[in-house]
Amino acid sequence: MERNSSKKRIFFITGIAGFIGSNLARKLLDTLDNIEIIGIDNLNDYYSPSLKEARLNLLLYYSNLKFIKGDLANKELINLIFKKYTPDIVINLAAQAGVRYSITNPDAYIESNLIGFYNILEACRHSYDNGQKGVEHLVYASSSSVYGSNKKVPYSTEDKVDNPVSLYAATKKSNELMAHAYSKLYNIASTGLRFFTVYGPAGRPDMAYFGFTNKLIKGETIEIFNYGNCKRDFTYIDDIVEGIIKVMQKPPQKQAGEDGLPLPPYAIYNIGNNHPENLLDFVTILQEELVRAGVLPIDYDFESHKKLVPMQPGDVPVTYADTSALERDFGFKPSTSLREGLRKFAEWYKEYYLK
Q1: Is 168 a residue of the active site?
Q2: Which domain of life is it from (predicted)?
Q3: Among 116, 196, 247, 297, which one is least packed by beta carbons within 10 Å?
Q4: Three-class SS state of 97
Q5: Other CB atoms within 10 Å distance of the CB of residue 154
């Protein structure tokens, strides 16, 4: 997708005020010419809407971005957007996120992650009506949570993932199954991306690194689950965005099978750092970077603010991405080190909250 394409390309990004959506939109607007981005977000209060609005404010001065406040579960609205703007590429990042929240608030996940995604699939399907060119590529967010209680590491997209340990994970696996059916039935090119623990500046406050920082600032105790014996494949936001952009430009090929019917133009990739970090090491690096950035004082007593606790329901002991397919097909592998990423987060946190 070169900067100087003659025809204006239309991107529809759902969840555009979210952590990944806002960073993706900004990168596209800064690097591609002759594009228009239509973004939708319901700006719900799962976490502070002011953070979502701050991300959105960075986008609103671009003249080729149009923001629509609305909900994916509103089928009429989604159909209207597709009819009016006829997007070339759809990037579905809107979803009710979080494993623990799904245990107490299941309704939000069914509405956003299942009904909302169904509305996107239907709109993509009807974008080809009456011989229209329609959507070239649907890229959607899945999650490393789909691997559930998988014992084999690293996690490969070839693994069987039929044992979700949270409703959130079950909805993400459902998205992959629904997309496969629509790819097969209606020849919609779709790619699912299983993201692994995305972090960085202006990230989600419900994520561990952000929550830990909020608590340490207040002098509260942070809880480290599974007595610190958890490993996470932390992936920096810029790597996630670069991965999405590479994938989005290369939809799975449409081709016929032996029976003359279309083979589903469907793909799934992991986007992770391919390098799991022990939670205790992660906390050590985080506290060092918070001190370095001046968020916490040099003499902060971390030991008295740390508590090792058992595993939480819905959690898994390790996440570890096999990214060989991503490297093979796109020549791309995330490369930001945890220290580098947490340093940028700590510097942003000081600027945003402690100014």
Answers
A1: yes
A2: Bacteria
A3: 297
A4: coil
A5: 20
Phi first, then psi: what are they for 233, rounded to 5°? Answer: -90, 85
Q: Which of 109, 140, 147, 168 is catalytic?
A: 168
φ, ψ of residue 223 in degrees (nearest 5):
-105, 125
Bridge-partner residues for 198, per DSSP? 235
CA distance 43 to 52: 7
Read off the amino acid at residue 257: G
Cα–Cα dist 60/304, whole Å: 44
pLDDT tens by residue, the chain, 355 residues: 544 456 899 999 999 999 999 999 999 999 999 999 999 999 999 999 999 999 999 999 999 999 999 999 999 999 999 999 999 999 999 999 888 888 888 999 999 999 999 999 999 999 999 999 999 999 999 999 999 878 888 999 999 999 898 999 999 999 999 999 999 999 999 999 999 999 999 999 999 999 999 999 999 999 988 878 888 999 999 999 999 999 999 999 988 888 887 789 999 999 999 889 999 999 999 999 999 999 999 999 999 999 988 877 767 778 899 999 999 999 999 999 999 999 999 999 999 998 7
Sequence letter at residue 299: D
What is the DSSP code (8-state) at residue 99? S
How many helices (H) does the chain have, and how many strands (E)? 12, 15
Residue count of the chain:
355
What is the C-alpha to C-alpha distance for residues 197 and 232, in angstroms, rounded to an integer? Answer: 7
Helix, strand, coil shares, percent, the chain, to 5:
45, 15, 40
Contact criterion met (CB below 8 Å) for 72 and 112: yes
Q: What is the DSSP letter of 251?
A: P
For residue 7, give both structure tokens. 């025809």
For residue 235, count CB atoms less than 10 angstroms from its CB and return exposed for 0-12, middle for 13-18, buried for 19 or more.
buried
Element (H, E) at 123: helix 116-126
Contacts of 110 (CB under 8 A, 6+ apart): 171
